[in-house]
Recover the amino acids of this structure.
């Protein structure tokens, strides 16, 4: 655990995975009724990176983007949020950046994701081998990076190189069925990635999927913490989270808010949790910081633009009750 925390406390992360474009109409407006959309940055890994930078850390993204206007939009947005793009490589041909259209409403919420021929799945061994891992304290990735080749092999190669450089590996399960060829392949690959990771974060559905049965998800998280991972965070939505570490189980609540949308919570949780540990918070306080960040993001439009700055987080914690009791 000390080595894992030492890496995280450098507060400098290499983040492997996608950046995309998000489009969302005004709060409460259905996509089919909209006549205007806000465009901003999206993609799990890019959102995590933006959240880390906003909270005072450093993050560099490793991915591929389409060699077109949308790819350039994504690279410009990375710069806007202060995310290093040294290792972001354009790819030509028919590959296209992912696009997400989602609504700022809970009732009747719709998300439409375009991922056919996704540029980020074109990430290669050469892309990850070009990274100077010694510059960073830890590697972060989200599960979607493993959903197709050559990205899958490249991501596992990044794990090897990060491990050789002494970096802890942080894995957000982030299971998205639409990206995978089959549920069986997803379960096998995500379980392999989990077994190689030092810190694993996922929700009850994701751990249940890896275990083959949602009822067995908590046991799966417990087993990973007992056999390979230093920290495992099992999130349960409004019921809070269970964090496994050193044979202990830590239960934490949430900060209740009126949600504007259901998207972005997991990415913001990861950013808040990791920067909390980097700032010297104990495990419980770091998990609660992640929970507060998640609550902030679901109560605002967008994902990357909704990620809090330190002042936003302080204001939220001063004004909102919580965390809820888990007893």
């Amino acid at each position: 655990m000390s080595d894992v925390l030492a890496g995280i406390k450098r507060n400098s992360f290499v983040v492997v995975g996608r950046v995309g474009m998000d489009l969302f109409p005004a709060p409460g407006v259905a996509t089919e009724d909209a006549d205007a959309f806000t465009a901003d940055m999206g993609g799990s890994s890019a959102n995590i990176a933006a959240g880390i930078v906003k909270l005072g850390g450093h993050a560099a993204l490793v991915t591929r983007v389409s060699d077109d206007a949308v790819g350039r939009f994504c690279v410009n947005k990375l710069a806007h949020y202060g995310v290093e793009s040294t290792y972001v490589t354009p790819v030509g041909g028919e590959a296209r950046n992912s696009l997400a259209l989602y609504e700022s409403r809970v009732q009747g919420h719709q998300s439409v994701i375009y991922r056919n021929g996704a540029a980020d799945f074109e990430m290669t061994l050469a892309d990850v081998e070009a990274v100077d891992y010694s510059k960073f304290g830890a590697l972060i990735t989200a599960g979607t990076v493993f959903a197709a080749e050559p990205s899958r092999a490249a991501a596992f190669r990044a794990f090897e190189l990060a491990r050789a450089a002494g970096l802890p590996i942080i894995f957000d399960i982030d299971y998205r069925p639409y990206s995978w060829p089959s549920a069986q392949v997803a379960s096998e690959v995500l379980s392999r990635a989990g077994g190689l990771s030092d810190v694993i974060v996922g929700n009850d559905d994701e751990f249940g999927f890896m275990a083959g049965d949602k009822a067995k998800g908590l046991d799966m998280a417990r087993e990973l913490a007992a056999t390979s991972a230093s920290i495992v965070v099992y999130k349960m939505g409004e019921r809070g989270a269970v964090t496994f570490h050193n044979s202990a189980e830590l239960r934490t609540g949430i900060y209740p808010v009126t949600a504007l949308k259901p998207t972005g919570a997991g990415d913001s949780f990861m950013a808040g949790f990791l920067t909390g540990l980097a700032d010297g918070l104990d495990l419980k306080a770091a998990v609660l910081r992640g929970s507060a960040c998640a609550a902030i993001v679901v109560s605002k439009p967008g994902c990357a633009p909704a990620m809090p700055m330190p002042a936003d987080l302080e204001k939220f914690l001063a004004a909102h009750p919580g965390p809820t009791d888990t007893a």
The chain has one domain: 2-311.
